[in-house]
Amino acid sequence: MSGAALGLEIVFVFFLALFLLHRYGDFKKQHRLVIIATLLAWYLCFLIVFILPLDVSTTIYNRCKLAVNSSPAESNGSYVTPAPSKQKCFKPWSYIPTGIMPIFWRVVYWTSQFLTWILLPFMQSYARSGGFSITGKIKTALIENAIYYGTYLLIFGAFLIYVAVNPNFNLQWNQLQTIGIAAANTWGLFLLVLLLGYGLVEIPRSHWNGAKRGYLLMKTYFKAAKLMTEKADAEENLEDIMEEVRKVSESIKYNHPLRKCVDTILKKCPAEYQERMGRNMDDYEDFDERQNSYPSEKSLVKLHKQVIYSVQRHRRTQVQWQILLEQAFYLEDVAKNETSATRQFVHTFHSQEPENKIIQYFYTPTVEWYWECLLRPWFYRVLAVVLAMFSVIVVWSECTFFSTNPVLSLFAVFIQLAEKTYNYIYIEMACFLTIFFLSICVYSTVFRIRVFNYYYLASHHQTDAYSLLFSGMLFCRLTPPLCLNFLGLTHMDATISHKNTQPTAYTSIMGSMRVLSFIADGFYIYYPMLVVILCIATYFSLGTRCLNLLGFQQFMGDSEMTSDLIDEGKELIQREKRKRQRQEEGENRRREWKERYGNRDDSTRNRVVQKESSFSEISTNRSLSKYTRSNGRTERDRIELLQDAEPLDFNADSINDDPLESDLGRYQPGGRYLSMSRSKIFED
Questions:
Q1: Could you read off the pLDDT of 559-615 as tens digits, one per residue?
Q2: Range(s) of the domain holding residue 460
Q3: Structural domains counted in the chain
Q4: Crossing angle between the packed helical segments 271-279 and 213-251, to the nearest 10 degrees
Q5: CB 283 within 8 A of CB 342
Q6: Are 1 and 93 in contact (CB under 8 A)?
């Protein structure tokens, strides 16, 4: 089994990262380089989390071998081995041969750092660029990242000058490399504690609230009201952008040098807008630079960028609205079925997607009723209690992991007890559960946070390229300090345990933090204690209350604004529900009519089609002979008839004499004042 566990986890983690990326990204529409870069970043970060427990068990076995092969007072190189145990050292089932792990960690770590500090920021700017060529996009990305890269180069250059001038520093290349790693880990640890403090409280609380049906339904109504506002804003923004595109498309003709750029912009527009703009095109007209002023290429690049953003946002809000409607309908069904005497789950609407037959066979309406109405609330409560216990253990260990005599960190106590008996299965399971829980608290916060409309991970393939790349950057910057923090909690890091024992392979590539003693003995030890304050702030929802005071509506039970939004969302859901019911009733009537009179309608329809086809042939022949003789006269008569035509439902208030506004085809409320001004009622 030597190396088999490593190979299995490498394959499993790859498919896990691929599954999550498929859930949030869109493989068909997004660029392949964006998908590959994001997949590589997620894969490397998840791989570190899954492989680190194997590194811990292998290190404990190597320490055991050193202890058995040497005397108690004998030193083995630079490591002082402990007293040998009376029990024989057994090789773990997941043992990794010596020399593989250092090379593996070095490749994984430096690849992730190259991605997060150099490649992914460049690809972010490249993805958001509105350029029409690869060269233009690369130029824009370099200009946008010049300040970003220049700042780091300036700091690094100033540090090198300080080291060269100061005689007290005699740094070698390995020490300089360690300083760079320490700087990156310090930045990551600063952000890690902030995200961890939120996740340690919010994850257990969200599962506890998940057992409350009324709470979930009210929160869904609240989300519906907010999403409808965002959806309307996205539609209005798209209309404005499409209007600008229409004006540009009509001004730049087919033989203009910038027409290729306009065609590229039109391809990014929705299909209905493309058809509408295509009907209004008069490509037979030539352009004249002396008579008209045309937009520049720079303005077209800006417009192209706005089109990409507005179309993506509009599509995302449409999909999220449909998903939220399904969720609200399902929660309302659960609330109705809780009082059902038949104990069978009844859905108001049938699922629009075809269900798996195997799932239908086992997940019957009776099983669904017992799970949704009886078992699921209790399961969520038990899970919330277990997660809350893990959170308390993490907070206690974060505040006491620096104490080595006595050992107060509970994770270190568990690992040391298992190390005495060399129970490698227990060691790997304890390490995996610990680092997995820490990763869930941190990574789930990354998936939940939203920075306005610039960074937002939306499921169901609705995440844009910029957000995917930004998430890859965050994962690569948070994972190394997360693993170092885990090794500190378990006292597997020699910097924390103050023991001159063999370090893990992951710690060995990080170098000795003793080069920067104020970071190793100060920041790394005392800054994680800040997680206590952050957990208290999250428990009392201080951040939510501050955002609510600033005008960002948040879900708060004691807020009047929240109650108003809940009522508004409930009305929106009920309106969509009635619309869905009318659609299903109409489909049922059409289905019944077809089943009852299907054969008769088919024969009648065939006779009507035959008559219409013969009549159309006769009328076509007549019209052809007619228009070949007097085409110009007929066109003039048709125009005069259209000018003299007057609709039956005539309303003077809706008249608009502005030809530009009528040509735009957008709604302009005339109002009573406009009609009164036209009738000159205010003149003397």
A1: 788 889 999 999 999 999 999 999 888 888 888 888 888 655 555 555 544 555 554
A2: 1-68+89-216+354-564
A3: 1
A4: 30
A5: no
A6: yes
